[in-house]
Design a protein that fits this description.
alpha/beta, TIM Barrel, about 350 residues, binds 5'-deoxyadenosine, 3-stranded parallel sheet, 13 helices
Length: about 350
């Protein structure tokens, strides 16, 4: 009863006490989880219905100048076959995606110094011109505000940049000292100022993360009010310093997803590849807890294995852009369907 009252109050007031967040995050009780997840998916359905937006994810480069301890494409990993796509390859992926029905292209990559900014701006302009009805999302890491502005002016609409953890000491346990949480946070606010729809989020169960850290992240996202929220379990990668660390907890991830939906009713929340990787029905569980986006892989098939952020990353079947029918079949089973709309953020209409 107490649990239900907390969930109802979160739905109503969109905020809780820290101890209450922890209770919701950590519950393993099947009935409590069912109640939390249903509340979240009801809120989502009341706004977005039962259509799930799709985004074509084009992994444009696995070169990266950063050395994040958790990430498989970190600079120091010499086992990676590095690649980056040229303009023609990216435009071809967009064309294939468009024909499959995608109306959002997400260009994601490591912080690759060799894509000079000029070239990226040129690519964005070309996509904007060829596909005026599509949204362009970027996920290219930390840049200067001037650079972000140029991307925006070239026609990009959205930007994904997870903050990973808001706690400075924890951030420093996950990243070498040339990376700073203050920079990350500054980038996020600058992106918002420029007018991007902004996405942020965390890995759940990253090494050294405590439940209090997650509560701090909840508070940060409450301040930031991002239009998109990306959450997935931490998964180890064999060629990183964190290779022997435990993976994140699937249930905590899904509970957090539901909490985010209740706090941010209009947000675009993907059921992430990491969730689909940690268990076979992870994608479905995310949707049933309030996620409303999936991001099938639209990268050239020959490079997919090389964009390995963690072990066994799903990139086949329902995770593959060319197999939307498999995704549709899975969604049908749980009462959902693919939405081929562009899927922009819906601003709340205040009564
Ligand atoms: N496990 C899970 N997620 C990861 N990411 C990077 N490495 C891992 C990993 N080992 C996530 C980060 C990043 C996003 C693109 O992928 O949160 O922001």
């Amino acid at each position: 009863q107490k649990f239900k009252e907390i969930v109802d109050r979160l739905k109503e007031k969109r905020t809780l006490q820290d101890e209450e967040y922890k209770l919701l995050l950590q519950t393993k009780d099947a009935q409590e989880q069912a109640y939390l997840h249903k509340a979240a998916r009801d809120v989502c359905q009341s706004i977005y219905g039962n259509g799930i937006f799709i985004r074509g994810l084009i992994e444009i480069s696995n070169y990266c100048k950063n050395d994040c301890y958790y990430c498989g494409i970190r600079k120091s990993n010499h086992h990676v076959k590095r690649y980056h796509l040229n303009k023609e390859e990216i435009l071809l992926a967009c064309k294939q995606g468009y024909e499959l029905g995608f109306r959002t292209f997400v260009m994601q990559g490591g912080e690759d110094g060799s894509y000079d900014d000029h070239m990226m701006v040129d690519i964005i302009k070309s996509i904007r011109k060829s596909y005026p009805d599509c949204a362009i999302t970027l996920s290219l890491g930390e840049k200067s505000k001037e650079m972000y502005q140029q991307y925006y002016d070239a026609g990009a609409n959205r930007y994904l940049l997870r903050h990973e953890t808001i706690c400075e000491s924890h951030y420093n346990q996950l990243h070498p000292s040339n990376m700073q949480i203050q920079n990350r946070v500054q980038c996020l606010w600058e992106l918002k100022e420029i007018g991007f729809q902004v996405g942020s989020g965390i890995m759940v169960g990253s090494p050294y993360q405590s439940i209090d850290h997650i509560v701090e992240d909840i508070h940060f996202l409450e301040q930031l009010q991002p239009q998109m929220i990306g959450l997935g379990p931490y998964l180890p990668h064999k060629d990183t310093p964190f290779k022997d660390e435990a993976k994140g907890d699937e249930q905590v991830t899904i509970n957090l997803l539901a909490i985010m939906r209740l706090m941010h009713p209009q947000a675009l929340i993907p059921s992430t590849t990491a969730l689909a990787t940690i268990s076979d029905d992870g994608r479905e569980k995310g949707i049933l807890a309030g996620a409303n986006v999936v991001m099938p892989n639209l990268s050239p098939v020959k490079h997919r294995e090389s964009y390995s952020l963690y072990n066994d990353k799903a990139n086949m079947n329902a995770e593959a852009a060319e197999s939307l029918h498999l995704l549709e079949a899975r969604l049908q089973k749980i009462g959902y369907t693919i939405s081929y709309d562009r899927g922009d953020y819906k601003k709340e209409v205040k009564k």
